[in-house]
Write a structure and sequence with these properties.
By secondary structure, the protein is an alpha/beta fold. The protein contains six helices and 38 strands.
């Protein structure tokens, strides 16, 4: 690149490279090297002309003086944030090279004592990359703590999305818009904030970390904290909603208008209140009560509690109500009703009604006409049937399922007694063979064991059946006191069944009560049930 000669009359400089091949960085390095020689009387102007103009003649840049050896040097630069340290090596000019111990000493003097790259340092000692800035040490940055976050274990503010089946069919009645939750269910949990990790500069100074921020759990109505205060539980069963940035659980789900395509089917663990109608083809399920302030068409209502229809049911032959409590409706027409409790209405027409309690039809009409009605504890109305002799079947007393079970067990009882007799006969014959002194063959011995086991099982089942039959008969007798009463008129076409007896009304009767006496149903003067 250049030649420097120390002659008797001075120090001469000659550029050996073409100036056009030199970069500005190369030229600055040449000047820096010459300055390191600490030449006395250095004529910089002459040096610059020799470098930049490339005079072919040797340029005298200083007066005569001895050539002084220059040791290898290392400069250190530390970044302003104290997180990085850089070194630059300058080659020796006839002087000593820096050892690894020298480099570490110089770094320590510059307060660079942390994050030193010793692997790189070993490489540098063996072969130094001169006049290049090298990252030799790096600090560890601090890591700020993570802010607390909330994890929702439920889906809030559901969008009305119809159900799509595997075959591609879409059911717009199954929109799944209610987030049902049970008591004790985890609704929201908090992932706590972290404290973070402190960092270290190349001078081994600690950099404190900023801790994460905490967050308040969105506890709303009917919710409670977990024991560790890091979660929210539902304190009741109901629907979960996010309102005003808080999670609430409501026991009542209210529909402002009709149950139709805009709402889809309703399936809720609590109570359901519907301000409009329930349109045909839709289904409403509730773990509590259902109250409909409009009309129920050919829809299905299923409730663990009571069902109240403020305006009644026009079932169209396909509407049905299943209630774990009472059913109260202004009217029931062409519907199917099943209730564990009572059914109370102003009119029941052409419907199938079954309840474990009483059927009470009163109010303005108090009419039962058409259909089949069964009540465990009695039926009462103003008018039953119609002048057109509409077929109307009323049944009170024992539930048909109870009667069916009773008849089945009675028949099965006879079969079990016959099986026991056959088993006893077989054991008797085998016993005679043993008494005769003849040993029983192996197959007879196995038969004896099998028959004995069958006999024991049959005897146990027989006793269980007798106990159950007794219980059922007690139930049948207890409900045989149930009555059917009409405070006005009963028309022909009406049949009355109480317990195991039945009665067909052939003539108009008024102010009458049908009850069972001595195994027969007899009409008597009106009695309230």
């Amino acid at each position: 690149m250049y030649v420097l000669e120390f002659r008797e009359d001075g120090v001469y400089f000659k550029l050996t490279s073409n100036p056009s091949d030199l970069t500005e960085s190369d030229k600055r390095k040449i000047i820096q090297r010459l300055k390191r020689k600490k030449l006395e009387g250095l004529q910089l102007n002459t040096l610059f002309q020799a470098i930049y103009k490339h005079d072919a003649q040797d340029a005298k840049i200083a007066h005569a003086q001895p050539d002084v050896a220059v040791d290898e040097e290392m400069t250190i630069r530390v970044s302003s944030d104290q997180m990085q340290a850089f070194v630059t090596f300058l080659p020796p000019e006839g002087g000593k090279s820096l050892s690894q111990q020298d480099i570490l000493r110089l770094l320590k003097e510059a307060s660079v004592i942390y994050g030193i790259n010793y692997g790189l340092l070993n490489e540098i000692v063996s072969e130094k990359p001169y006049e290049q800035e090298i990252l030799i040490a790096q600090g560890t940055p601090s890591r700020n703590g993570q802010d607390a976050t909330l994890k929702f274990h439920i889906e809030l503010n559901k969008k009305a999305t119809p159900k799509i089946y595997e075959d591609g069919q879409i059911d717009y009645r199954l929109l799944d818009t209610i987030e049902n939750v049970t008591k004790g269910q985890l609704l929201v949990s908090m992932i706590p904030p972290t404290s973070g990790v402190s960092g270290t500069t190349v001078s081994n100074k600690q950099i404190p970390a900023k801790p994460g921020k905490s967050i308040n759990l969105p506890k709303g109505k009917n919710t409670e904290f977990t024991d560790d205060k890091l979660g929210i539980l539902a304190s009741i069963g109901g629907k979960a909603e996010l309102l005003d940035k808080k999670v609430h659980v409501f026991i009542v789900h209210e529909i402002r208008d009709n149950v139709d395509n805009s709402t889809g089917n309703i399936d809720f663990v609590g109570n359901v209140v519907i301000n409009g109608n329930v349109m045909s083809g839709f289904e409403v399920k509730a773990g509590g009560f259902i109250e409909v302030r409009g009309v129920v068409e050919g829809a299905v209502l299923i409730a663990d509690g009571n069902v109240v229809l403020k305006r009644g049911m026009q079932g169209m032959g396909k509407g049905s109500i299943v209630s774990g409590g009472n059913v109260v409706a202004r009217f029931i027409e062409s519907g199917n009703v099943s209730a564990k409790g009572d059914v109370i209405s102003e009119a029941i027409m052409h419907s199938n009604v079954h309840c474990g309690g009483k059927i009470i039809v009163a109010g303005k009409k108090g009419l039962i006409a058409g259909g089949k009605l069964h009540a465990g504890k009695g039926i009462s109305a103003f008018t039953i049937g119609s002048p057109m002799a509409t077929y109307t079947a009323l049944e009170v007393g024992v539930d048909p399922e109870i009667r069916k079970e009773h008849d089945f067990l009675k028949k099965d009882l006879d079969n079990m007694e016959n099986e026991i007799k056959k088993a006893e006969q077989i054991l008797h014959l085998l016993g005679k063979m043993e008494v005769s002194g003849q040993p029983l063959p192996l197959d007879k011995q196995l038969l004896k064991v099998k028959v004995k086991n069958t006999l024991n099982d049959s005897i146990a089942k027989l006793e269980e059946a007798k106990i159950r039959i007794f219980e059922l008969e007690e139930t049948i007798l207890s409900v045989a006191e149930s009555k059917v009463s009409a405070s006005k008129t009963v028309y022909p076409g009406v049949t009355v069944a109480i317990g195991l007896s039945s009665f067909r009304v052939k003539d108009i009767v008024e102010f009458v009560t049908f009850k069972r006496e001595h195994g027969e149903i007899r009409p008597a003067s009106y009695q309230s049930i």
